[in-house]
Each structure stands twice: as C-alpha cells, then as structure tokens.
C-alpha cells in the first residue's frame, strides 16, 4: 500500500529517532564503524513528520539527505550520540533507536596519524626474516608469499573499550516515553530480542535477521519482526523501509 495522504495521527507528539552508524576514531584519519546506511531511521523520521509529529533525528554520518521538516542533530561517535539522546529524551513521547552504535571504541585514539614504520619498527626483524625464508622470485606471481604468512609479524594491536549502551541508559531514565529499539541478529532473533527488551527496559524491539535477501543495512527494503514487551510478536512481509516505518508507527500509536 502506497500512502499518498497521511493521517495526522502524530499531531503534537514529540518523536526522537536515532539513525546511522557511529564512527569511533583510531587516529585523525581513521575510524571504526559498521554498514549502517541510516535509511531505516530516516524513513521513520520522515514518516513521523508527515503524520504531524515533531521529530528530532539524532544522526551519525550518512550519505542521505535528512527529511524536510525534521530537526537534525548530527553526531559522530557513540559518546556524542549518548549525550544528544540524554539531552533530547525527557520531553519525547516516543523514542525509536535505530542507530547502529559501535559497541567498542579505541581506548586511546592517537592524536597524530599512525605510521607504518613506527608500528613495524617493533617487529621489523621477524618480518624481514619471513621475506628471506620464503625466497620469492618477484617475477613469478605464483611464488609470492601468502600475505597472511607475514602479516602476523607486522601486527598492529588497537585496544578497544566498550561504549555506553545508549538504549539501556534511555531505558533507565525514561518515565512515560514509549521506547523502541532495533536489533540486527544473525541467529536466535526471538530469544535475543526478548532478552534485550527485558535487559534495556524497552516497550518493543524491531528485529531483523541480517543476511535475508533484500533486507538489512544498505537495502531499500527490510524484513522485520516486532516484539512487544507484553510478549506479542508480529512478523511483517518484506516491505519498503517506508512501509515498515508507517506500520511501526501504527503499532506504536495503538500502544500509547
Ligand atoms: N544500542 C545502543 N548503544 C549501544 C549498543 C546498542 O543504544 N552501545 C542500541 C541500538 O541502537 C539498538 C539496540 O541497542 O537499538 C540493539 O543493538 P544490538 O547491537 O542489537 O544490541 P547490543 O545490546 O549491542 O548487543 P549485541 O551487539 O551483543 O547483540
Ligand atoms: Ca551491538
């Protein structure tokens, strides 16, 4: 069903949506992130705005334009996203946390670019030994050493530390807000989704199995399953992210 006209059933409601990936700095030119495109969160923000909602979208870096009429707060890291959510959640009626927050960040982001020669200095001896032991003939591609046979000798270790769980923080802080999370899983979707509802004090979780054809991170369509706090479960057919957004808002409205 393509909706041309939207009921203004979210008129006056404040909706907070988080979307996109977070970026966790390794050094000034590199970061750790994930495959989130932001499309699902942006579709929800857009749908809520069209239905009359007052929407704040807290977004990590994405390559898509924010929907018209939506207040956008741009963030980079999980720590920044946590701050923005805490600052914007108290007067929200509905909070939908779609963002793919990086679970870990580098413990000590370097203030200058990590240079290979400095990393390799420690293990230079073993790397050159591997090269000479292989005795490769550079004119014969088949005799090239397997990259894995010497990469271990030039290993770089980055210590990671866990990021705060923003959704769990919101669950602890919330009063009257309806709080929805998302969960991408590769296995045991039902079990993990229900556990996350309890652990994070959520009203619902939208689960999707990563790896289903036409579903997930960069796709325009999504195959999701709704899990509610009261144990109700609803599996939707593969649908556009826009359609999923509207159905999600329909269900949330029925609960509040
Ligand atoms: N989430 C969050 N802050 C984090 C990690 C996750 O707010 N540091 C939120 C996501 O925005 C999402 C939900 O928690 O709405 C579920 O994310 P998911 O990665 O599935 O769950 P985790 O609790 O991180 O567990 P795991 O990755 O181990 O499955
Ligand atoms: Ca996670």
TrEMBL record:
Lineage of the organism: Bacteria, Pseudomonadati, Thermodesulfobacteriota, Desulfobacteria, Desulfobacterales
Natural source organism: Desulfamplus magnetovallimortis
Function: Catalyzes two sequential steps in the biosynthesis of coenzyme A. In the first step cysteine is conjugated to 4'-phosphopantothenate to form 4-phosphopantothenoylcysteine. In the second step the latter compound is decarboxylated to form 4'-phosphopantotheine. Catalyzes two steps in the biosynthesis of coenzyme A. In the first step cysteine is conjugated to 4'-phosphopantothenate to form 4-phosphopantothenoylcysteine, in the latter compound is decarboxylated to form 4'-phosphopantotheine.
Entry annotated with the keyword Transport: no
Gene: coaBC
Gene Ontology CC terms, in alphabetical order: phosphopantothenoylcysteine decarboxylase complex
Associated pathway: Cofactor biosynthesis; coenzyme A biosynthesis; CoA from (R)-pantothenate: step 3/5; Cofactor biosynthesis; coenzyme A biosynthesis; CoA from (R)-pantothenate: step 2/5
Recorded GO MF terms: FMN binding; metal ion binding; phosphopantothenate--cysteine ligase activity; phosphopantothenoylcysteine decarboxylase activity
Cofactor: Mg(2+); FMN
Protein name from the UniProt record: Coenzyme A biosynthesis bifunctional protein CoaBC
Region annotated Phosphopantothenate--cysteine ligase, chain positions: 15-256
Domain DNA/pantothenate metabolism flavoprotein C-terminal, first and last residues per copy: 10-119, 154-254
Family the UniProt entry places it in: In the N-terminal section; belongs to the HFCD (homo-oligomeric flavin containing Cys decarboxylase) superfamily. In the C-terminal section; belongs to the PPC synthetase family.
Cofactor comment: Binds 1 FMN per subunit.
Keyword annotations: Decarboxylase, Flavoprotein, FMN, Ligase, Lyase, Magnesium, Metal-binding, Multifunctional enzyme
Complete-protein stretch covered: 174 to 429 of 429
Flavoprotein is among the record's keywords: yes
Binding site for CTP: 103, 113, 164-167, 182, 196, 200
GO biological process, one term: coenzyme A biosynthetic process
EC code(s) of this entry: 4.1.1.36, 6.3.2.5
Substrates-to-products reaction catalysed: N-[(R)-4-phosphopantothenoyl]-L-cysteine + H(+) = (R)-4'-phosphopantetheine + CO2; (R)-4'-phosphopantothenate + L-cysteine + CTP = N-[(R)-4-phosphopantothenoyl]-L-cysteine + CMP + diphosphate + H(+)
């Amino acid at each position: 069903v393509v909706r041309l006209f939207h009921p203004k059933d979210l008129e006056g409601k404040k909706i907070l949506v988080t979307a996109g990936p977070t970026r966790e700095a390794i050094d000034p030119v590199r970061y750790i992130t994930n495959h989130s495109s932001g499309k699902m969160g942006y579709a929800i923000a857009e749908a809520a705005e069209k239905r009359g909602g007052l929407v704040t979208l807290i977004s990590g870096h994405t390559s898509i334009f924010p929907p018209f009429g939506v207040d956008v707060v741009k963030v980079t890291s999980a720590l920044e996203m946590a701050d923005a959510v805490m600052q914007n959640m108290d007067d929200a009626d509905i909070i939908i946390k779609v963002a793919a927050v990086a679970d870990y960040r580098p413990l000590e982001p370097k203030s200058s670019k990590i240079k290979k020669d400095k990393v390799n200095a420690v293990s230079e001896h073993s790397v050159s030994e591997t090269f000479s032991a292989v005795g490769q003939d550079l004119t014969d591609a088949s005799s090239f050493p397997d990259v894995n046979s010497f990469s271990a000798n030039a290993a770089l270790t980055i210590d990671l530390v866990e990021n705060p769980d923003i959704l769990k923080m919101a669950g602890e802080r919330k009063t009257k807000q309806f709080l929805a999370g998302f969960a991408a899983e590769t296995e045991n979707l039902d079990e993990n989704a229900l556990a996350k509802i309890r652990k994070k004090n959520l009203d619902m979780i939208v689960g999707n199995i990563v790896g289903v054809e036409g579903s997930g991170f960069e796709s325009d369509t999504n195959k999701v399953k709704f899990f509610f706090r009261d144990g109700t479960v609803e599996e939707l057919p593969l649908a556009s992210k826009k359609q999923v957004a509207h159905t999600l808002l329909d269900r949330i409205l029925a609960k509040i």
